[in-house]
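User: Sequence recovery, please. Input:
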């Protein structure tokens, strides 16, 4: 016979027109001793008596489906209490059986995610607190993906920074062009993908680079190939999503664009403004002040302020960090505030490890000293990496999906609808002309 959880049958008088509110109030207002007495004294009927029946007055309980024999290991069988209640068709229990003590109850096939694995009082524990664990387990199994675009004129340290951020060498096969070749070169889009794993968590990282951007003599509209690339990824996703096989869609949408600003200019150049204005509705732009080691600390502060003012002045919408929840702890709030005030991140990149104060660090060695990439006193590299990887990667993906992709999708549907309406009107017009024309 198939096993099913024991149905909870309430005493007859509770069944007779007394609703859940009354039961709730009754349970809340009555103390344990009285309830025990009530349960003992309650005459009940033969079919609903259970020795452990007092548990129906306690907190919610789990009616764990009885595992099938094939699902159990020997251990599970040993842990099973000697007589599992076997409800027959006519038999009904007064309540679920009492929760088993942690040492005697059967082990869940979920292992670590056993909802019973809690230090909480079992009686108060249903088990949905493990839902995040279930999601976590599933996500880890599936792996994560993230697509990062880097844009800005060549030589600003984009590839060095990407390698420093993810401790990889993504640009091994890069061919640097001569000045002559660069004059002729148009903006190209290149993709490097790498699978990285850290503590069992897999991340498929795709870096989209834009070699040639800003390199030509005339850079008018050189942002166009970049915008087209982003739109193509949205289009592909839109097609896949509307297709038959939606299970294994490969998501190549660009989740974030690090836009490199030269440290040598006075704030933003016209090309920077044009690029960011053309792309801010399509992708999360994070502005970067490149090669910060070429500036003194006051210069960094001045440049950052100027860039922020210009971003505001030109109505550019760079990626906005979400507001902190009010119940976050103070440290987190301060960290979040510091992150917001760091825009644009002033960074230093290096692929070499040098020795500084007896430690081996990633840095740049100059005749007058060493600048350390990961020293918060030297640059915002750590803040950028924390934001990108540890704190905001998921938000960047969410904003891409919920805002940028949704905008694209709405536009697509709108233009498709317009086309259909136009076509229908054309047909109606042709039909009416035929009717009018016929004798
Ligand atoms: P990309 O063309 O934008 O990818 O630039 P690269 O990463 O190839 O860097 C160009 C040059 O700048 C190389 O010689 C790097 O060593 C140097 N470089 C990279 N990052 C920095 C930095 O943060 N500070 C300084 N001073 N030089 C850097």
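Assistant: Recovered sequence (439 residues):
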């Amino acid at each position: 016979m198939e096993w099913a959880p024991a149905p909870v049958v309430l005493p007859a008088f509770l069944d007779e027109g007394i609703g859940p509110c009354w039961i709730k109030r009754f349970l809340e207002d009555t103390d344990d001793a009285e309830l025990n007495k009530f349960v003992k004294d309650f005459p009940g009927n033969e079919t609903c008596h259970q020795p452990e029946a007092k548990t129906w007055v306690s907190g919610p309980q789990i009616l764990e489906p009885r595992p099938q024999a094939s699902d159990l290991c020997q251990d599970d069988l040993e842990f099973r209490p000697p007589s599992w209640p076997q409800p027959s068709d006519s038999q009904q229990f007064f309540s679920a059986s009492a929760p088993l003590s942690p040492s005697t109850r059967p082990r869940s096939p979920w292992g670590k995610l056993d909802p019973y694995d809690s230090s909480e009082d079992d009686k108060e524990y249903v088990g949905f607190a493990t839902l995040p664990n279930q999601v976590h387990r599933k996500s880890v199994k599936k792996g994560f993906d993230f697509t990062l675009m880097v844009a800005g004129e060549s030589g600003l340290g984009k590839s060095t920074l990407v390698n420093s951020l993810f401790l990889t060498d993504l640009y091994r096969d890069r061919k640097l062009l001569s000045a002559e070749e660069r004059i002729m070169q148009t903006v190209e889009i290149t993709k490097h993908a790498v699978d990285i794993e850290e503590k069992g968590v897999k991340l498929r990282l795709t870096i989209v680079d834009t070699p040639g951007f800003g390199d030509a003599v005339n850079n008018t509209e050189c942002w166009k190939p970049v915008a087209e690339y982003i739109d193509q990824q949205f289009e592909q996703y839109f097609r896949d999503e509307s297709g038959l096989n939606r299970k294994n869609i490969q998501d190549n949408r660009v989740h974030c664009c690090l836009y490199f600003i030269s440290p040598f200019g006075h704030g933003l150049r016209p090309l920077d403004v044009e690029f960011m204005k053309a792309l801010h509705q399509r992708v999360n732009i994070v502005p970067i002040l490149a090669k910060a080691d070429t500036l003194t600390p006051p210069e960094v502060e001045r440049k950052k302020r100027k860039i922020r003012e210009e971003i505001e002045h030109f109505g550019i919408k760079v990626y906005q960090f979400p507001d902190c929840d009010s119940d976050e702890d103070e440290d987190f709030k301060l960290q979040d505030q510091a992150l917001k005030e760091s825009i644009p991140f002033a960074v230093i990149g290096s692929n070499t490890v040098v020795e500084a104060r007896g430690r081996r660090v990633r840095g740049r060695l100059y005749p007058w000293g060493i600048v350390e990439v990961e020293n918060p006193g030297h640059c915002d590299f750590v803040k950028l990496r924390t934001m990108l990887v540890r704190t905001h990667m998921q938000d960047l993906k969410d904003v891409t999906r919920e805002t940028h992709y949704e905008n694209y999708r709405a536009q697509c549907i709108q233009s498709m609808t317009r086309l259909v309406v136009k076509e229908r009107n054309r047909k109606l017009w042709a039909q009416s002309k035929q009717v009018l024309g016929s004798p």
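The radius of gyration is 32 Å.
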